Amino acid sequence: MLEPGPLRAAALGHAARGWHVFPLRPDNRPHDPDHPKKPAFPDHAEDRCPRTDPRCQAGHTGWEPRATCDPARIERAWRIPYNIGIACGPARLVVIDLDTRKPDAEPPPGHEHYHHGIDVFTDLCHQHGQPVPDDTYTVGTASGGRHLVFQHPTDGPPLRNTQGDRGGLGWLIDTRAHGGYIVAAGSTACGRPYRVVHGRRPIVLPGWLAALLRPAESAAPRKVVGNFSAYRRDAYVRGAVYRTLDKLAEAREPGRNNALFVAAATLGQLAAGGALTEAEVYEALTPTALGIGLSDREAERAIRSGLSAGARRPRQVA
Asked: How many domains is the chain built from?
């Protein structure tokens, strides 16, 4: 049986740095390395919140607002040997996650010789004529990777998560910032530890890296209007779709998922009443959902749940 003492002490140590922590699932499934990386609370997604969790009574409360630096709350939470998550946004951190190449991974063209994100990152630094910024707080991950932990820049818009080549720094390199979290030192996955490699104070993320991580366009997301069948309906239905998309396009993290659920429920009422088809609801909402930063999977799941909710309250158009 795992003892909570060392994990509690590690959580308190991270909180003493001003880093907001929250419980991840215990490392009690020896053949599931992803299990101890997932939040212990809440145990449900935003679009399926039953409102039975005490902290969800007034609305869904996810892992980020539950993160804390309060020693008393940490003492209570870590009576069980939970792993430790650090919420990067509240902690004002940007983490460069350098991963190891999986045996069955298919590298992008020209990357066949890379076996670790450290090598990709080193070459990226050299290409920009910059030294490798490894003089910062660093954690060795359970899989043999590295977390380079930086302070978030004080200027510019908030940085967010990136993944590999998709708006990120390159293959085998992810980043975590606002809206993201990391597994903290002191935690384990399949018995393998996350350990501090360099315990020094995090330095501010170098400006050239921040520039690479900022979106090319800082303008607010806008609704995406396509030439699809829902707009060939009558004026009332078209207006309902446009108003719904306008509101959805204004959604920001951490409320994007719930905003899409509400939008799908709104149009789902019309679909249940026969004014739209479910296919048209997907067709109408998906482009804007992706435009505000949700993934295909997140969008599909939230729309499906919203349609189910809307179907319980059909709305007919005369």
From this structure: 2
